[in-house]
């Protein structure tokens, strides 16, 4: 599938999808407390998404059974919410969500601490978030995709962290996953040349330890192989001739 350039109308719809998703994340963050079940987080997220007349894009995607991916500690991504799993003081939790507004997608992830967390955990969350911002310094028409990938990886690895290789970011639009794939580490090829109107979900997944991951028997939950903490940060980004527009972030 070719990489698509979105029309002004499509971009307008993606802005709306993004803004709603930013609100979803803001609301979910407030609900993060010791004792809440991961299913309650999922239910709340689905409720908010539907209240804006949006569809939760993850629900039933390739059989995924929930609207919000909730991944705790060594879980990297795609944790499945459960009535029997509760957040505990000191955990870190990654929330990944996607919405569809009038046929257009947005996709974003945040990692939060539950109550008081260790300095180590705080640093991982902050470095993961910052690695995204290091990457998008290169997200501009005329640059090549590899510059984003390399900047994310270089930054995270400078802290000794493992940059997950088996999962990547992606183009996004009328589909959740479109071309191109967007790795978070150094590439041999320069890859795609960026153009205004491309919309990309850029999503570093970073482990404190080694980068290797494995899949649990539920066939969804990805965990770090060495059991180390993992963080995830993602926004849907519009490429322009100047600064990129972060569609899934906004200030009230
Ligand atoms: N947010 C994931 C991504 O960025 C997609 C989740 S897949 C699902 O690619 F099946 F869990 F929904
Ligand atoms: Co994504």
Automatic annotation (TrEMBL):
A divalent metal cation 2 binds at residues 107, 170, 203, 234. Its EC number is 3.4.11.18. Keywords: Aminopeptidase, Hydrolase, Metal-binding, Protease. Residues 12-241 form the Peptidase M24 domain. One of its GO terms (biological process) is proteolysis. GO terms for cellular component: cytosol. It catalyses: Release of N-terminal amino acids, preferentially methionine, from peptides and arylamides. InterPro entries: Creatinase/aminopeptidase-like (IPR036005), Pept_M24 (IPR000994), Pept_M24_MAP (IPR001714), Pept_M24A_MAP1 (IPR002467). Its cofactor is Co(2+); Zn(2+); Mn(2+); Fe(2+). Belongs to the peptidase M24A family. Methionine aminopeptidase type 1 subfamily. Removes the N-terminal methionine from nascent proteins. The N-terminal methionine is often cleaved when the second residue in the primary sequence is small and uncharged (Met-Ala-, Cys, Gly, Pro, Ser, Thr, or Val). Requires deformylation of the N(alpha)-formylated initiator methionine before it can be hydrolyzed. This is Methionine aminopeptidase. It comes from Candidatus Galacturonatibacter soehngenii. The lineage of its organism: Bacteria, Bacillati, Bacillota, Clostridia, Lachnospirales.
């Amino acid at each position: 599938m070719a990489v698509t350039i979105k029309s002004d109308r499509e971009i307008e719809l993606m802005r709306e999808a993004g803004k709603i998703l930013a609100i979803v994340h803001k609301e979910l963050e407030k609900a993060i407390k010791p004792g809440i079940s991961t299913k309650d987080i999922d239910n709340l997220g689905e409720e908010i998404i539907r209240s804006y007349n949006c569809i939760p894009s993850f629900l039933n995607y390739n059989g995924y059974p929930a609207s919000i991916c909730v991944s705790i500690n060594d879980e990297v991504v795609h944790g499945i919410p459960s009535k029997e799993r509760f957040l505990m003081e000191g955990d870190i939790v990654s929330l990944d969500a996607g919405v569809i507004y009038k046929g257009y997608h947005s996709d974003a992830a945040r990692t939060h601490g539950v109550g008081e967390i260790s300095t180590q955990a705080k640093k991982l969350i902050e470095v993961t978030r910052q690695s995204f911002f290091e990457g998008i310094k290169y997200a501009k028409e005329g640059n090549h995709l590899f510059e984003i990938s390399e900047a994310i990886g270089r930054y995270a690895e400078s802290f000794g962290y493992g940059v997950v290789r088996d999962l990547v970011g992606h183009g996004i639009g009328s589909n959740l996953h479109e071309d191109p794939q967007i790795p978070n580490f150094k590439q041999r090829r320069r890859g795609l040349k960026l153009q205004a109107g491309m919309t990309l979900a850029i999503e570093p997944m970073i482990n404190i330890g080694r980068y290797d991951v494995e899949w649990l028997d539920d066939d969804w939950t990805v965990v770090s192989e060495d059991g180390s903490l993992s963080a995830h940060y993602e926004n849907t980004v519009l490429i322009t001739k100047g600064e990129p527009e972060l569609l899934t972030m906004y200030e009230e």
